[in-house]
Structures are given as structure tokens and as C-alpha cells.
Design brief:
Blueprint lengths: L7 H12 L6 H10 L3 H9 L2 H7 L15 E2 L5 H21 L1 H5 L10 H10 L1 H14 L9 E5 L5 H6 L5 E6 L2 H14 L4 E5 L11 E6 L8 H14 E15 L3 E2 L1 H6 L13 H10 L2 E9 L9 E10 L2
Parallel strand pairs: 1-7, 2-3, 2-5, 3-4, 5-6
Antiparallel strand pairs: 6-9, 8-9
Length: 322
């Protein structure tokens, strides 16, 4: 955030998130504290350094051309088909939770099962940035954390971000389709003594098992669901959102060469691998409008690292007015 001073903890977290490693030594940390006046300048320095370019590729933040064509995407399905698609996707994440739960959330080598013991603290520390995004986003639309009672973290996994949200909101619900992920999350919250967190498994026939909330958050989750499943999740989330509530979520809205039709999808091998999907921006805006939500903030984000110019991801912030 502009003007916010650089701290030792911020330097370590910045190195971990952007470069995938810790600073070499205390001298490097001290030099960063002396060199950069605020977090914005420090973050820009890391994001433009040679090591970052080698790690993530050149031209990272290039956007698709304004004359890019449209994706043909089928976004609606009947209840049985929705449940079938959700079950296929859920099968993948259940298997991932059984074999490499932390790596399936953040796909870095240090979070693989044989490395996670030495990097568990860094894994959970990375969730602090997501919570900062929530705080900053609320600030941009004239709201504050203290105005919200019940926060839902959709696709909570092992609780990486949920843990940080639990330090800011009086009631937090983590939702995930993977039982093994939720098992680890429960152990984490039990050890932390956080009794105001509820963890609930999403089921294929009930994709949003929360009746009411006033803040709904999801990042790097919905992109792994087939478009009709994501649209159903959003539809139920918008219904559950109380008047005055806010939804903050990230979704790819364009992928080069992407299209989706249900018949072709089901004829393939759904759920065999981690999937990546996109939903046209127009469909999301129309769904939100239908449910009485007004767009308050829209950001082009960089959550599709490694696809410069070939993908567009948006972070949406809606407020429910009726």
C-alpha cells in the first residue's frame, strides 16, 4: 500500500511470495529496509528484478489486445449435470488433498509433501496478503473490516487465508469441496484455538452451504470450476449475501483459444487434472445485476502468472443494495 513503511516481516514475505525464497541473510533485509521508503516501491523493485523475470517469465503483466475475440462459453446447466460436473472436479481436489494438500493450493516446490515441514510457516504467512487485499478493497469502496460480522472464505483449502480472516472478523466460515483439505484446516484451527471459525464441506448437490453472510471472498478457486458450476456458486452466494453485504472474488474472464460446451466437456476426462476455466465478464455483471448487486470495484489482476497476453483475470467487488 502506498505510504506504508517497509518492515522486516514485509521484506521476508515479499521475498517468499514474489521470489519463492527467503532473503539470503539479515544484511539483505537491512539493506531493503534502508533502501525503500514504502511497501509500494519495495514491491515494484522485487517485481522488476531479474530474478523475478526468470521465475515468472518476461512481459508478465501484458494484457490481451483490445481487439481480442470472444470466448464461446456455455454457462448454464440443469441440476443433475451441475452435480455431475461438481463431483468430477471435487474428485480431483479430494485426490490432491490426499497426496499434496499444500502444494495443490500454492504450486511451489517448497510446499510439496517432502518439503512442507520446513516451509509450513511460510505457507500460512502467505495468506496475510489476501487479507490485506480484502482490507484495501473494502477501503477503496468506503467500507471497513469492522462493519462486517460474518465472512465466508469460499475454497478455503487447508485454511491458509481463512486463518488470517479469522483474525479480522468475529465469525468466519471456510468452505471447500475436499474433505482431506478441510481435515488439515480443522487441525490448524484447533491448534490455534480459534473457536469462531466454522469449516463446512461443499457437496456437489449443494455448492454454497451457507444461508446468510455479509462478506463473501474467493481467490484462485473459481477458475478451477466449469463455468456452469461457477455461475451456480455465484448465484447462490449472491442470494445468501445480506443487504449491504459485499462479495470480493477473482475470476479469469478471457483465455486465449478457450471455449466451453457441456457436451464436449463431459465427453472428455473431467476432473482428471487441475482445470482452468474462464467466464465472460458480461455474464458475471448480468448475474450480479439480477440479484441486486452493484459493481463497486473492478481490477485487472495478475493471478494467471505465466500467461502474458493470453489471459485476463479480474477481481470483482460487488455490494448488494436490495
Amino acid at each position: 500500500m502506498p505510504g506504508e513503511p517497509v518492515t522486516r516481516e514485509a521484506v521476508i514475505l515479499g521475498y517468499r511470495m514474489l521470489l519463492g525464497r527467503d532473503p539470503e541473510n539479515e544484511d539483505v533485509i537491512a539493506n531493503a529496509l534502508a533502501a525503500w521508503p514504502d511497501l509500494q516501491s519495495f514491491g515494484k523493485a522485487l517485481a522488476t528484478c531479474a530474478e523475478f523475470g526468470l521465475r515468472h517469465g518476461s512481459n508478465l503483466h501484458a494484457l490481451p489486445s483490445l481487439d481480442a475475440g470472444s470466448n464461446l462459453v456455455e454457462t448454464e446447466a440443469d441440476a443433475d449435470t451441475l452435480a455431475l460436473m461438481a463431483a468430477k472436479v471435487g474428485g480431483y481436489w479430494t485426490r490432491a488433498g490426499e497426496t499434496a494438500p499444500h502444494w495443490s493450493v500454492l504450486t511451489e516446490e517448497r510446499f510439496l509433501p517432502h518439503n512442507i515441514a520446513n516451509n509450513l510457516e511460510a505457507f500460512y504467512a502467505a495468506g496475510a496478503w489476501d487479507a490485506q487485499v480484502v482490507e484495501a478493497t473494502l477501503g477503496r469502496i468506503g467500507r471497513s473490516v469492522g462493519q462486517f460480522r460474518h465472512c465466508v472464505d469460499y475454497g478455503c483449502g487447508v485454511g491458509r487465508v481463512t486463518l488470517q480472516l479469522a483474525r479480522r472478523f468475529p465469525q468466519v466460515t471456510g468452505l471447500d469441496i475436499s474433505g482431506p483439505h478441510l481435515h488439515l484446516a480443522r487441525e490448524t484451527f484447533r491448534a490455534a484455538g480459534l473457536g469462531h471459525v466454522t469449516l463446512t464441506q461443499v457437496m456437489p448437490e449443494r455448492l454454497m452451504p451457507v444461508e446468510s453472510c455479509d462478506l463473501w471472498f474467493s481467490r484462485i478457486v473459481l477458475q478451477h470450476c466449469p463455468p456452469p458450476v461457477t455461475m451456480n456458486i455465484l448465484r447462490q452466494a449472491f442470494r445468501a449475501l445480506e443487504t449491504g453485504g459485499v462479495a470480493i472474488f477473482q475470476l479469469p474472464v478471457w483465455l486465449q483459444g478457450y471455449q466451453f460446451d457441456i457436451a464436449s466437456y463431459l465427453a472428455g476426462t473431467p476432473g482428471a487434472d487441475m482445470e482452468m476455466h474462464a467466464i465472460p465478464q458480461r455474464a458475471i455483471l448480468e448475474l450480479a445485476d439480477w440479484h441486486g448487486l452493484v459493481l463497486r470495484d473492478l481490477r485487472e489482476d495478475s493471478f494467471l502468472i505465466g500467461r502474458p497476453g493470453g489471459a485476463l483475470s479480474n477481481t470483482f467487488t460487488f455490494e448488494k443494495l436490495r
